[in-house]
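Give me the 3D structure for Gylcosyl hydrolase 115 C-terminal domain-containing protein.
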Amino acid sequence: MLRSRLLSGLLSGVMLLSAASAFSAEVTLFDGTNKIGVVHEKGRTLELAAQMLSRDVEALTGHTAKVSTRLRDCPQVCVVIGTYDSGVVAGLAKSAGVDPLALKGQWERYGRAVLQKDGKTYVLIYGSDRRGAVYGVTDLSRELGVSPWEWWADVKPRRTERLVIDDTARLSQTPSVQYRGIFLNDEDWGLEPWAGKTFEPEVGNIGPKTYARVYELMWRLKANTLWPAMHINTVQFYGLKQNPKVADDYAIIIGTSHAEPMMRNNLREWDEARDGPFNFTVNRDKILKYWRTRLKESAAYENIYTVGLRGIHDGPMQGADTLEARKDVLQSVIGLQRNLFKSALGRSPETVPQTYVLYHELQEAYDAGLKLPDDVTLMWADDNYGYIRRLSNAEERKRSGGSGVYYHVSYWGRPHDYQWLGTNHPELLRSEMQKAYALEARRIWILNVGDVKPLEYLAQYFLDLAFDADLLKSGPRAHLTGWADETFGAGNGTEVADIMMGFYDLAFERKPEYMGFSETEPVTPVTMSDFVKPDGEKAQARLAAYADLVARAEALGARLPPDRQSAYFELVLYPVRGAANLNARVLNIDLAGLYARQGRASANVYSDRARAAHQAIVADTATYNGLENGKWNRMMDMAPRRLPVFMEPVYPQWSPSSQPGCATAVAGGWWNDENALTFVTGQPRSRVIELFTRQATDQTWTLKAPKGALKLSSESGTLDATNGWEQRLTVTYDGTTELGPIDIQCGGKTIRIHTKLLPAPVPADYVENDRRVIIPLASQSDARWERLEELGHTGDVLRSRLDLPTLQAPDGEPLRYRFSTYSSVGGSLNLVGLPVHALNPGTGVKIAVQLDSGPIEVLDFSTVGRSDQWRANVLVNKAVQTLPLRMLNAGAHELKIWPLDPGVVLDHAEIRLDGADKYYGIVE
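Predicted structure for Gylcosyl hydrolase 115 C-terminal domain-containing protein (924 residues):
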C-alpha cells in the first residue's frame, strides 16, 4: 500500500462515495495463492488497457493475470473494465450498488466499486467513455505501486507478495481541462534517432511502435491529445498508415501545431516541384485539394483540426507581405476550410473540434481584426520562454469554442535554444497556467516536450495541473515531493525536491544552454561570461552552488537501491551534473583567463578543471545512452543543433609568472586602496580574500588579525598543488566597531589587508551596502497583490491580482519600503520584475512608483514582439525599468509602489549608487 500522503495525491480529482477511507475495508487482490484475471468490454482500446494492467500485475507479483472478454473466465479475483453501458458492467453494477448510467454523457470520468459475488471478488471499473475507463485502470495501477514512468524512465515496479486496495467506491471528477496533451517537437537529436536506430529500426524512424509507447505514457498521465513529431527528418504522421490507426486504438486525439493546418505536415507532404508554390494567393485550388485529401483520410478518427495558414514549416505565409494582406488571406482561408469540413467530413463545421493557434503572425492577424467562427478554440501561446503572450478578454471568454494554451518547456529558436536538460522553473509554469485557468483557458492545453526525455517531471506536472486544477492553488514543491516519494521510495521526496528546486533556481538565473552568452538566429560566438565580471566572485559562488547540488545528488543516489539507479540517473543525476558541468566548463575557462591576467599560478588549474568538466558531460552522456543495456542509445545528445555553447573549446595554458612569491585579491571592497575590505557599521557581513602564489611552488602562510569584530575561516596553511596554489579566506564581520588590518605572511613577505568601517546608515528595513540597496518586494503585500513563492531572483515574487481593474493613475494605499543610505551621490532606481506580458489588449504591465516625496512615475514592463529588449529579458528572466537619480541624499528614504494593471510580477528593487560594481544579477 502507498502511504496516505501519496495515495491522497493519486486520488486527486476522485470523489469517495462511501465512508471515509480510514474506515474502509482492505481487499486483497493477490496474496500468492490466488489467481487474478482481467475482463474487458470488447474493443481494441479496453483490450489494450486490460493487457497493460495484466503486465503491471505480472511486474508486481511475477504471476500472469489472464485477460478475457467473458465474466465466466474470472478466477478468484477479477478486475472488470468497461464503459457505463457495456454488458460486462451491467452484469455486476446492480450487485455493486452503483448506477453506471449516471455517467452517460460525461467526459472522461470513471467509477470504481468492489463487490463479492458467488465467492469471487470483483473490482468493477466503468467509464463514461473509453478514456474514462482507461483512467480507472491507470489509477488502479498507480495505487498498486506502478509509476507512470515504469517504462519511459525505468521506474521498475517492485515485487510484492500481496496486492491490496480498499473497497471504497469512487467516482472521478471531470478533468479540469478538456483536451490535455503534448507536442513531440525538435526531435532531431533525441527521439527520432533513438526510435529509428534503437527502438524501431524496422521503420527507421518514429513510427507506430514508438507512438504506442507514447500513448501508454499519456494514458498513465491522463493526457488525451497528441501533436505528433513533424520535423523534416521525421516521417510524417500520415505517411505511415498504422500511425492514425494506433492512435485510435489508444483513444488518443490527434491535433497539429500552428505550422500544420488541416492535419497536414507541409514540410514533408507538399512537393513544390509537383504542386507549385505553397502560396494560397496563386495556388488556391491545389492547396484546397491537398487539405480535402487529408480530411478524407482522417475522417474516421478523433481529431482536433488546426485552422489558418502559415508558410511551409514554421514560417510566414507566402504571397502576403503585410499584416493587412495576411489577415485578408486568413479570413478567406478559414471560410474555405469550414466549407471543406462540411463537404469532406459530411459534418456541420460547428461539430468539428477546431483550434486557431495564436502564434507569431497568426496572433498579429487576429489582434488586427481577423474574425473567427465562435466555435473555434482560441489557443494562446507563450513567447517560447514560458511567458504567455496574452489571454482572452471578457468578450472572448463568452465564445462557445473557449480557449486554451500552447506552452513550451523545450524550444529551438531565437534568442537561444533550450533543448537539452529540462530546466524551466515549475513555479513559473504553475503561475502562468494558473493565470490561464483563471481567465478560462480551459479547453485545450498542449505542452511542447521536445523528445519527452529529459522533461519527464515537467511533463507530468503540467498534465497533472491540467487534469486537476486544484493543484494550481499551491506551489510545486509539495507536488514534486510526492512525485519523488512515489518514484524513488517514500522518505526520499523531500531531499529530491530540495535538489531539484535548487537545480531549477540556478537555471532560472541563467539556463545552462545560455552560458556561452551567445545567441541563435543568427548564431553568434561564445563570449566571456558576465558572471566573471568584475572580480570572479559571482562565478565562484555559482560554481560552489552547483558543486553543493551535485554532492547532495550523488550522496542521495548512492543510498538508493539498485532498482532505482537508472531512473535516478535519468530523472535527477544527469540533469543536475550536466548543468553543473557545463557551467563549470564555461566559468572555469573564463576564471582561468581572469586569473592569468592577475599572474596566478592557478590559471592552468582552472583550465584543466574546464577540460575535466567537459569530459564529465561526455562520459555521463555515454552512460545515459548505455543504460538498461542500451535501451536509450541515441536518446541523449549533449549538443543539440551543435550550437557554440556545447562545443568543446580550446583550453588555454599559460607560462608561469616572472614574479615570485604570494599575492592577494580582495573582493567586495570599493575604498581607494585595492587591498582593502570595507564593512558597514552594524551590518554583519562576510568578505573573501584570495591568497595565491605567482608560480607553481609550494608556500606556507600564516595570518594575523586583530581580536574583535573579525573572524577568519583559517589562520594558516600551505599553497600547493592540492588547492591549486590558492586559498579562499572568508572574513566575517560581526557588526561591532573593533577593526584593524589583517597581515598575511607568505612567500617571505607580509601582505597587509586594510579594513575600512563605513558609517552606519539610519536604521531601516533595508540599508546601503556595496553602494546599493536591494529590496525583495515580496516582503510586503496587501489585498491587491499575491505572493508567488519560490520564484524569482530573491526568493519570492509579487503578482498584482488577476481580477484588478486597469488604472491610469494610482489609487489607494501603496506598498511601502523603508531604506537608508550613507552616501550622498547619484545613481538609479531599478524596479526588477519578471518579463510577463499583458493579460490581453485591454490591460498592460504597469505600476506606479514614488521615491520619498518625489513625483509619481508610471513604469511599463511591456515589450514589443521579439524586440531586442524582449530577447534580453527572457535570457535572464528579468524585466527592468530604471529611474535615474541625480542625487540621493544620505539618510532615510521610502519607496512606494501601486499596481496599475493586473498580472504584473515584481521581484526586487535595486537602488544602485554611483561607483557600484556591475555584477551579473545582484550582490547579496
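Residues 179-474 form a domain with the TIM Barrel fold (CATH 3.20.20.520). Let me know if you want a second pass.
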